[in-house]
Amino acid sequence: MTLLERYILKISFSAFVACLVALTAVIWITQALRELDLLTGKGQTLFIFLTVTGLSLPALINVIAPVALFMAVIYTLNRLNGDSELIVMSAGGMAPQRLMRPFIALAAFICIVVGMISVYIMPASFQELRLLFTKIRADFVATMAKEGQFITLENGITFHYRERSGDALLGIFMEDQRDKKKPIVYLAERGQTVETNGLAYLVLEKGSVQRKEPNSRDSSIVAFERYAVDLSAFNREDGEVIYKPRERSTTQLLFPDKSEPLYQLQPGRFRAELHERLSSWLYPLAMMAIAFAALGEARTTRQGRGLAIAAAIVGVVVLRILGFAASSAAARSAAAVIAIYAVPIGTIVICLMQIFQGPAMRSFNARVRNAFRALRPSRRAAAQGA
Q1: CB neighbour list of residue 30: distance below 8 Å, 6 or more residues apart
Q2: Where are the beta strands (DSSP E) in the chain?
Q3: Rounded CA gap, 169 and 203, in Å?
Q4: What are the two backbone dihedrals, phi and then psi, of residue 93, each rounded to the nearest 5 degrees?
């Protein structure tokens, strides 16, 4: 790589890092504000809050990195043209292939990063988020219960305690109506949450368990001195966490368990998620090509570049819309999978044709226009002679 190419790469890389950090910070802050309820409403620690918001960063970077590259290329080319450096390079005989080299090198690096995030890092972060949220929701005594208030969960659990004494809860009432035919009521003078082997338990002391017999008005009451209730079971329907397609590893998407109920219900979603991951690395290259096709040609300071920038932005928006449409179509039909790859690859091919064949196409169009202009006087003369 020549000194000039390293100079261009340095400018574009610095602009990319600045755009990536700024955009990620802004969006991360908005995400963090949405999760602030973990601290205020669910009683979690600052460490849990930072962990939850931090695990969302891979997904943010995966989306923001191609956009940051697009903005960096726009900035670099606009700066080079504004300082007349692009004009000098073009006048010195620098071909578009050489001018593109530093941008291609930067795009290749970002493609590798985005590919690794999509295939490995992002699914792992989603899995950790699911496990963490499951654990938070399971320990509803610590996260949602308020002194002197009755809380009712969506799955039919009602919980109440009179007051708190240190780490212990006094005057506990808990009703389990997950099975409407066999409701269970727990009463205890005292209770405390403990964690064993990653599971949360509520240890009740000096109380009773009341169970209603099915198809009967009678109830059985059992008194106890000490009784442990598995809190995590109250938030699990089948005893295990079921991961969504985006939370599965790439290997699990490549070789899914076809007997799994979720796969049988949504096979298209598994297929679309897999091919989205495998094609995500193409988008940085496509967005770089759009930016270069719009602004890679040298122009004088009197020639406005605002229209070219606007056209590039519209091109990126259309690219992402077509990408989402292709993914949705692939979820419904296996034949539409090719569209997931065709959208970014087609964009790259069209932009490369514009970059390398643009001068020739403009010269051909100019010759055609001149030919039509030359025909006009002869037509007028023929009309006057008639």
Answers
A1: none
A2: 151-152, 157-165, 168-176, 184-196, 199-212, 219-230
A3: 10
A4: 90, 20
Give the Cα separation of 56 and 58 in Å (integer): 6
Please check whether residue 232 is in contact with residue 240, taking contact to mean a CB–CB distance below 8 angstroms. Answer: no
Please tell me whether the overall predicted TM-score, pTM, comes out greater than 0.90 for this model. Answer: no
CA 218 to chain centre: 53
Residue with tokens 């493609």: 111
- The token pair that represents 326 in the structure block: 């292709």
Q: Quick: pLDDT tens for 61-95.
A: 999 999 999 999 999 988 888 777 777 777 777 77
Tokens representing residue 341 in the block: 């790859």
**Domains of the chain by residue range:** 3-137+244-370, 145-230
Spatial distance between the Cα atoms of 275 and 258, rounded to a whole number of angstroms = 18
The single-letter code of the amino acid at 115 is G
Sheet holding 168-176, edge to edge: 151-152, 157-165, 168-176, 184-196, 199-212, 219-230
Cα–Cα distance measured from residue 106 to residue 108, given in angstroms and rounded to the nearest whole number: 5
On whether the CB atoms of residues 160 and 173 are closer than 8 A, the answer is: yes
